[in-house]
Amino acid sequence: MWKGIIEEYRKFLPVTDKTPVVSLCEGNTPLICAQTLSKLVSDEVYPHTKKSSVGVYLKYEGLNPTASFKDRGMTVAISKAVEEGRKAVMCASTGNTSASAAAYAARAGIKCVVLIPEGAITLGKLSQALIHGAKVIAIKGNFDDALRIVREICEKHPITLVNSINPYRIEGQKTGSFEICDSLGDAPDFHAIPVGNAGNITAYWKGYKEYKAANISKRLPKMLGFQAEGAAPIVLGHPVKEPRTIATAIKIGNPASWKQAEAARDESGGLIDMVSDDEILAAYKLLASMDGIFVEPASAASVAGILKLAKKGFFNVRRQKPDEQRMRIVCVLTGHGLKDPDRAIASVDKPKVLEPNVDLVLKEMGL
Length: 367
Ligand SMILES: *Cc1c(COP(=O)(O)O)cnc(C)c1O
Prior knowledge:
The protein is α/β, with parallel strands linked by helices and 367 residues long. It has helices spanning 5-8, 35-45, 70-83, 96-108, 123-131, 143-156, 167-173, 175-184, 199-213, 233-236, 258-268, 277-290, 297-311, 341-346, 358-364, and strands at 31-33, 54-60, 88-92, 111-117, 135-139, 160-161, 190-194, 222-228, 271-275, 327-333.
């Protein structure tokens, strides 16, 4: 039975026999081969063959206990906070960090305080933080303002900060790359990931390097990070004062792990690019309608990103000879679509309401 990422990858994590493990059996998420996407990217790379020359794999992190990848980091951060005798944790959040912190704090029996930007957090995420019993405080400001306040409070009080600047979060999140290597037998050629506060790209790169150093994997992927156009400080090279995007989980103007994200990009020979909200929404709908996978908009940024790159011919330079193993691209799908039901409803036609009559229903069905 899967015991959660701390037990499964214990020797790679900063825990001892004395660490009280606070877990909800996170991790072990499926790596799904996406047929439609593989075909779409293959057609750009290798237009004259029927066989898919590219395999696109989706790491569906929305299937973690609180429905985002944040649980991987939170199990370690909360376990260490309890080990250190802390009675309270605090975070700033665009939503998923607070949902995860609230759940793991509840499990540990400690307090959780979350600071959110007013009106900028989705219904699913807010309901999670509240039902798990966190103290939720909204501020008239954005995520960056909230994080600044949380940092100041946690410096002066015995409260553990559980945003991704907490190094234990990164340690836990790096297990995502272990699972990908375990599933594929090695690291992929490319690893595509949305970038908000930039903790996760940092974590995945760290994980890939550690698995290679331990001789479990033989190679390293090129890291492809994607920000939203209206919140793309790393791409632009300067902080964005008023970040704007429908992808609320990556609506961040001044990422805490900015330097580490650049290091992941440069050491791996990858890139950090941006995608528009329209491209994000198109990828969001494509994933749901063609590959059967429902994610929140921010998660679709990784897919929008590889589609954008494929169209520009980015993957063609790596076109393989026929006998070579097919190119593998992993996209991390960071959070579940049910986190943001309003966006789904707003993206499609509303269902028609009819009188309860067979003929009317048949007519609506086009029969
Ligand atoms: C937190 C989050 C991100 C961004 O991850 P960072 O580590 O902040 O770059 C992307 N998507 C979802 C769904 C998230 O919850």
